[in-house]
Amino acid sequence: MIDIKKIRKDFPMYQNVPTMSNHSLVYFDNAATTFKPQQVIDAADEYYKFFCANSHRGDYEIAHTVDVKYEAARARVAKFINAETNEIAFTAGASMSLNSIAYGLAPILKENDEILLSEAEHASNVLPWFSVAEQRHAKITYINLTSEGRLTLENLKKAITPRTKIISLAQVTNVLGYVVDVKSFAKVAHEHGCLFVVDGAQSVPHMKVDVKDLDCDFLAFSGHKMLGPTGIGVMYGKYELLKKMKPLMSGGGMSSRFDTCGDVAYRIPPIKFEAGTQNLSGALGLAAACDYLDNIGMDNIRNHENELRKLMITGLKKLPNVKIYNEKAESGIVTFNIDKVFAQDAASYLSYKGIAVRSGNHCAQILLSFLGADATVRASLYLYNTKEDVQQFVEACASCGEGGNFLDAFFN
Ligand SMILES: Cc1ncc(COP(=O)(O)O)c(C=O)c1O
């Protein structure tokens, strides 16, 4: 059981912004980013207040302190996904991690080799692969989605060909919110000699992710979607693969030697992937976020989200004006439209009722034709949401469009 009253006290946003448009604030845009608890803010702040020096460069005492704290943060974050400490590199976020992985793996691709994706992927797990495919004259192929929009093992097997070299998929897709059976997918990928990359941006914040158990080759995720600061994320890779992979970025700190002929010796992973001054306070904040989440328990978080999700689906299903696109998803993402109301208008209406949701294509542009909609509204849950939030949301949806007076909310 999660004690929401106690949890909310940790989040300054709930104290500082208790209302929006004169209604209690309901924050349902957690798939975009999450609020931060005071513990995370303090941990990030500590860097600026007590040991503000660069890392891995200085020979004085506070430089040593920051090295110790930064590497301790790395160990903490690695433990969160059951990785070895030297298997995670800090990045700016999931997008940068996926770019690093895609460009790092580019050299293994030959002409007409295939990179297998799905139509449900976020732009950050599509566009880097497009660039790499173009560069290497490789091809992008897609796994067919079921009529519900799911990825199945059967369709994965059908989509793999002898030319498939890399498979890159989200563990939880950001629009439909289905959970992919990564462990089984990774097994099939490896049986076919493919590398398996996981976009964990929407899974790592919400469920226990154990890279050893899943046996994925790479995993990307962002700190800001899991109570951590913005501008910090993680690229996990199996050490043997990281050793062989070229870094996307080069610069200070990541090479041990270079000469006028252009010969460069990179430092060993993960440092070779961390060119330039790093987001040191962000890393400390992310480690504190891992502590916070583990203290509550990832299973408790998942159960709480599932409970709220059920309530939300039950409420929305009673509304004749609401079409739900992912009724049976196993995550806290609920995607819908309101009859005869454009998604962005619906989101503006909900805002006037105190509710923050996301509308549009959610950076998953390829999925739009599958959904048969130009845009959708997405409500996404997290550990600090309550049953009362869901009730306020369902009531607001009921009064939107034909179900009520659309304009009322703008004037009241
Ligand atoms: C599935 C998925 N992958 C990747 C990203 C990119 O994350 P970021 O913007 O933090 O780099 C997102 C962001 O919404 C996402 O939902």
Concise summary:
By secondary structure, this protein is an alpha/beta fold. The chain has 2 domains: 142 residues, Aspartate Aminotransferase, domain 1; 256 residues, Aspartate Aminotransferase, domain 2, CATH 3.40.640.10.
Topology:
Elements: H1 4-9, H2 12-16, E1 19-20, E2 23-24, E3 26-27, H3 38-50, H4 61-80, E4 88-91, H5 94-105, E5 114-118, H6 127-136, E6 139-143, H7 153-159, E7 164-170, H8 182-191, E8 195-199, H9 211-214, E9 218-222, E10 233-237, H10 239-244, E11 255-258, E12 264-266, H11 280-296, H12 298-317, E13 322-324, E14 333-338, H13 343-352, E15 355-356, E16 358-360, H14 367-371, E17 376-380, H15 387-398, H16 408-411
Parallel strand pairs: 3-15, 5-6, 5-7, 7-8, 8-9
Antiparallel strand pairs: 1-2, 4-10, 9-10, 11-12, 13-14, 14-17, 16-17
Helix pairs in contact: 3-11, 4-11, 12-15
This protein binds pyridoxal-5'-phosphate.
- CA-to-CA gap between the ends? 37 Å
Q: Briefly, what CATH class of the largest domain?
A: Alpha Beta
Strand content: 15-25%
- Low-pLDDT runs of 5+ residues are none
Provide the number of structural domains.
Answer: 2
| Biggest pleated sheet | 7 strands, mixed
Apparent shape? globular
> Helical segment tally?
16
